[in-house]
């Protein structure tokens, strides 16, 4: 027998065995008892959903709160940078050996405090010379004036020639000019002497010093940088589409727009309320933003030079804005919505427009709700449009579930059957 026929016979045998096995496994039950068992199984399967499932009309307990009308401040938010009111780099105005440093790094200094001392001896000598020269020329002037006055009396008697009087007058005028020049030289020497005491020009905080006592300093030597932080500035930027609103509010608000500086978590104000001081006169073409500057009193020095803060600029106040808890607002494929309580104690999905945040836990709604509408704030995950609900107040606990009359009768029947069987 050829190899082909061997393979064909094997395939036919496998098909015959498979058909017989299929018939045996799917043989119908012949007895009535089998049909009875099948009916019981079918009845049990059909009754399972009714036994395990819950009634769709059972109210879902949810927390609801009404919309509230209140005056809502409207803020513009931005990231700002704290900038000192004044930054002054202290350089000597004369050269010399630095004798002493009279401040501690990080210490607050007052305007007029002597913060460093340069060797004054050379400048003191120059000043003394200038004063001595002034006194010398003043004495010569006094003598020339006395000579002129005496000769004026003698001219009338013919003892002195009138030509000599011109010489006396010119000598007095020359000496007067010399005295004036000496006074200026003395003042200049005094200024140079005063420059040996390096004075703080502002109230501020001293930074890290750049030179130690004993070094010879020049006018290009930086000794320390003083930073004035009371009051202090916060500079921030806003998108150009906010420019008109800010300018209108700034002009109409008598230049008293309130600004708050918050920490990086937006949780706590870092200072008392500041006020907008300047709106920049140009828009940055690279970023499409414009700069603003606010001033804070900074009494506790919580704002520090170079610090980043979150800024809230209040541009206006909405009278009678509708406010709801923030957790009532849900995000859907078509935008924000809330579950609104209906008169028949069902809920409807109501689209809303959120106009802004109100504090940490509420939002203002500009469209979609009316005053007094009830919205679901807890339990939304169990709801769908048309769901029956049991409305609870915030903090109210729902009562424990109760059995229906049918369920009570069923439990009673089951209990009686168990006792009878015993």
From TrEMBL:
Gene3D superfamilies: 2.40.30.170, 2.40.420.20, 2.40.50.100, Helix hairpin bin. The keyword Kinase does not apply. It comes from the Bacteria. NCBIfam families: RND_mfp. Residues 410-422 have a biased composition (Basic residues). Residues 39-51 have a biased composition (Low complexity). Residues 231-315 form the Multidrug resistance protein MdtA-like beta-barrel domain. Residues 30-63, 386-422 are annotated as: Disordered. Keywords: Cell inner membrane, Cell membrane, Membrane, Transport. Its main location: membrane. Residues 86-222 form the Multidrug resistance protein MdtA-like barrel-sandwich hybrid domain. It is found in: Cell membrane. Transmembrane segments: none annotated. InterPro entries: MdtA-like_b-barrel, MdtA-like_BSH, MdtA-like_C, MdtA-like_HH, RND_pump_MFP. Residues 127-196 form the Multidrug resistance protein MdtA-like alpha-helical hairpin domain. Belongs to the membrane fusion protein (MFP) (TC 8.A.1) family. Residues 322-379 form the Multidrug resistance protein MdtA-like C-terminal permuted SH3 domain. This is Efflux RND transporter periplasmic adaptor subunit. It comes from Dyella mobilis.
């Amino acid at each position: 027998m050829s190899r082909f026929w061997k393979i064909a016979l094997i395939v036919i045998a496998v098909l015959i065995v498979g058909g017989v096995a299929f018939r045996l496994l799917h043989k119908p039950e012949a007895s009535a008892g089998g049909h009875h068992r099948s009916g019981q199984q079918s009845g049990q399967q059909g009754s399972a959903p009714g036994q395990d499932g819950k009634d769709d009309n059972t109210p879902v307990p949810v927390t609801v709160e009404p919309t509230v009308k209140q005056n809502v401040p409207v803020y513009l938010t931005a990231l700002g940078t704290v900038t000192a009111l004044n930054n002054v780099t202290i350089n000597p105005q004369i050269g010399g050996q630095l004798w002493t440093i009279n401040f501690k790094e990080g210490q607050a200094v007052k305007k007029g405090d002597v913060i460093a001392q340069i060797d004054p001896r050379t400048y003191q000598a120059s000043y003394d010379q200038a004063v001595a020269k002034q006194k010398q020329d003043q004495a010569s002037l006094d003598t020339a004036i006395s000579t002129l006055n005496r000769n004026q009396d003698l001219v009338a008697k013919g003892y002195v020639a009138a030509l000599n009087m011109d010489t006396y007058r010119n000598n007095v005028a020359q000496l007067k000019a010399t005295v004036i020049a000496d006074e200026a030289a003395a003042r200049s020497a005094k200024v140079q002497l005063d420059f040996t005491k390096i004075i703080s020009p502002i109230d501020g905080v001293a930074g890290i010093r750049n030179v130690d006592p004993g070094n010879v300093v020049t006018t290009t030597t930086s000794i320390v940088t003083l930073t004035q932080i009371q009051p202090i500035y916060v500079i921030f930027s806003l998108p150009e589409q906010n420019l008109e609103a800010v300018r209108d509010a700034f002009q109409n608000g008598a230049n008293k727009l309130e600004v708050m500086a918050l920490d990086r978590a937006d949780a706590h104000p870092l200072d008392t309320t500041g006020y907008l001081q300047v709106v920049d006169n140009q828009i940055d073409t690279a970023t499409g933003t414009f700069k603003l500057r606010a001033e804070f009193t900074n009494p506790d020095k919580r704002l520090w030079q170079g610090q980043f803060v979150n800024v809230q600029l209040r541009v206006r106040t909405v009278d009678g804005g509708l406010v709801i808890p923030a957790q009532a607002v849900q995000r859907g494929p078509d935008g924000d919505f809330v579950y609104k309580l209906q008169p028949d104690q069902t809920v409807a999905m109501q689209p809303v427009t959120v106009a802004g945040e109100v504090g940490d836990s509420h939002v203002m709604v500009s469209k979609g709700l009316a005053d007094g509408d009830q919205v679901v704030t807890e339990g939304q995950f169990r709801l769908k449009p048309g769901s029956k609900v049991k409305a609870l107040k915030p903090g109210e606990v729902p009562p424990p579930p109760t059995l229906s009359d049918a369920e009570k009768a069923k439990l009673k029947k089951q209990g009686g059957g168990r006792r009878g069987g015993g």
